[in-house]
Amino acid sequence: MGILFKDKSKVILSIIGITFFYIDPRDCCTRYTIYEFPPELQKKKQCLDYFIKSIKETHIWKRNQFIKNCELKEPLTFLKHLKVKGVAKMFLLNNHLIQFIFDDKSEVHILKNTRQIIFISEKRERTVYDSLARVMDLQDGQDIKKRILYIQKKFKI
Question: Which residues contact 131 (CB under 8 A, 6 or more apart)?
Fold first, then answer.
């Protein structure tokens, strides 16, 4: 998992979370640890720290096992864009997933390629909706509908 920055550089985190690879805009790759890295990478390291903290607060860290027996199981997933607005954080990942994490630990996942919406309540109950229209047809006051309206207003989606 990692982060793609606007300057086209990337930071890819090892599954253990100690080593990271910095890939500059010319695609030169250098290995560092989260403890030892050059001062010019301080701001990017701060973004990486925030990303690690957010991932560990959710269950992504355990759910997405990318390495088994030291081999890549799936293509690397990295964060393309991050926005924080009010009580929610938006993570735009390179695998066509937009994830919103709210302060109450509830989550909304939007799968761009299938238009599917997954709602995970603060009690960790999971509900899948096949479209945005299905969510908007729900009665007012439903948790998922409130969150979708909030997302549309704050994140302009």
Answer: 115, 116, 117
